[in-house]
Design brief:
By secondary structure, the protein is of the alpha+beta class. The protein is built from eleven helices and seven strands.
Length: about 325
């Protein structure tokens, strides 16, 4: 679906509607460029844009299939940038990833969105409200898109951080379910790893844009890319820290499980030991030896019961004192 198609000249949007087939010609002015926004386009829609702007077939194939890793590639006079978007879903404790693919030339910007991607309507409105930035050309639009995508990582990172803090409290809580906590830790760690795979490959492309290696980016826009790159590096560092922290939390949880299992085994061993004493004594008297003198003693039976109670009581106090019970 073609969401918007507009031509900008001298930092301002031209009034009136623009037909796709007239877009290339309209953006050929000295200070003009075209911005076309697509959302999950059909092959026919993307084919029309491809013919109009002579996009490279390999980049177009990536845009149709989507599910690409973040990257920056050069095709002739144009750049092709793949961005991963992120949105945190609190009810499911997952990070939903989307995708934005950007074709950038000296006189055009084509954005293709897939999945739960960042809405670029607000980005377009913000850029159109800053004529000085917009006058810097397509590079300013690319910065605005990258900046919004990385800013949207913030709420997702905050959501994961809250989940990690909650699971830390659960691990050391007296009322805990080891199996459920372990499952939750693995689930959160999987989300963090998926997030890292979505952000780590983006660090190098943004650094290249900030370094001014591509003449499609106006020199005045490079400082803005450096700021975005610093922001991205900090967020990537946070995610790496989350991964290490979750590994430590998982180890602590497994240690807690092991300690509790040892405590349970000690309790079981203590009760078995106490039960063994009366069992042994009863077993001896169950042999029915006639020559055992205490069998003929009137106090023999009570004395044996008292002995059992005394030995079991002594063992109970000993186990209790040593923390086995």
């Amino acid at each position: 679906m073609i969401v918007d198609c507009a031509v900008y000249d001298g930092g301002r949007r031209r009034t009136g509607s623009l037909d796709l087939h007239d877009a290339f010609k309209a953006g050929r002015g000295e200070d003009a460029f075209v911005w076309i926004g697509l959302y999950e386009p059909t092959p026919d829609e993307l084919d029309s844009v491809t013919r109009e702007f002579e996009l490279h077939e390999l980049a177009v194939e990536d845009a149709i299939k989507a599910h690409q890793r973040p990257k920056l590639e050069i095709y002739g006079d144009s750049l092709f940038l793949v961005l991963k978007t992120a949105r945190y879903v609190d009810s499911e404790e997952v990070v939903e990833l989307g995708e934005i693919l950007v074709f950038l030339g000296h006189h055009f910007v084509v954005t293709v969105r897939h999945g739960p991607a960042t809405d670029l309507g607000d980005v377009r409105g913000k850029v159109e409200g800053d004529s000085d930035r917009l006058a810097q050309g397509p590079g300013a639009v690319l910065h605005a898109i990258v900046d919004r995508v990385i800013d949207d990582y913030g709420p997702a990172i905050e959501g994961l951080q809250n989940d990690i803090e909650e699971v830390e409290e659960q691990v050391f809580s007296p009322e805990r379910s080891a199996g459920r906590i372990t499952e939750r830790i693995y689930k959160i760690k999987r989300e963090v790893l998926e997030f890292i795979r979505a952000t780590a490959p983006l660090v190098d492309p943004v650094a290249r844009l900030a370094a001014g290696r591509h003449d499609q980016i106006h020199p005045e826009s490079r400082a803005y890319f450096r700021d975005v790159n610093d922001h991205l590096i900090r967020m990537h560092g946070q995610l790496e820290g989350f991964r290490d922290l979750l590994t430590s939390v998982l180890e602590a949880n497994l240690t807690q499980v092991s300690v509790r299992q040892n405590e349970d085994m000690r309790k079981i061993a203590a009760w078995v030991a106490m039960a063994a004493v009366p069992t042994m004594i009863a077993g001896i008297y169950g042999m029915n030896f006639d020559h055992m003198p205490e069998l003929r003693w009137i106090y023999g039976y009570p004395a044996v019961l008292a002995l059992m109670a005394f030995v079991c009581g002594s063992m109970f106090r000993g186990f209790k004192r040593n923390g086995w019970l």
